[in-house]
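Give me a protein, keeping tokens residue-aligned:
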Amino acid sequence: MTTPLPTARRRLARDVLLLQLKLLLDAARDLVLSPVTLAAAAIDFVFGGSGSPRLFNAALRLGQRSDDWIDLWAAARGPEATDHANVDLLMARLEEAVRDPRTGARRARILKRWAERELARARRRSVAPTSASRDHGSVADTDDAH
């Protein structure tokens, strides 16, 4: 059975717009990470000694996490494949809030709290290794568990 044409076109338009948004986010991330990784590598080179490049590796992990969150090619997997928190989930929630005025305001408050928590979590991740390294000299690489 085929999808009705208006629904298929609506889905195509949504996927195209979402891809363009993701491409924009991806480009902005690249513009930010390029000087960050260069600076991290330079600092590790000058002050790192013979140990592993801690700051550069942290910048690489940040890039990997942001790449997973943007998930540029998720539309190729189909609509049912978005099962983790990323741009697709955020956009789906925003779309639902806009389409349903009864639950839209409630959903908007939930989204705002979620975004604030994610931003605070990202800030803690970026500050924690720096403050820990001042307190203890060096920090072993650890991955955040979710």
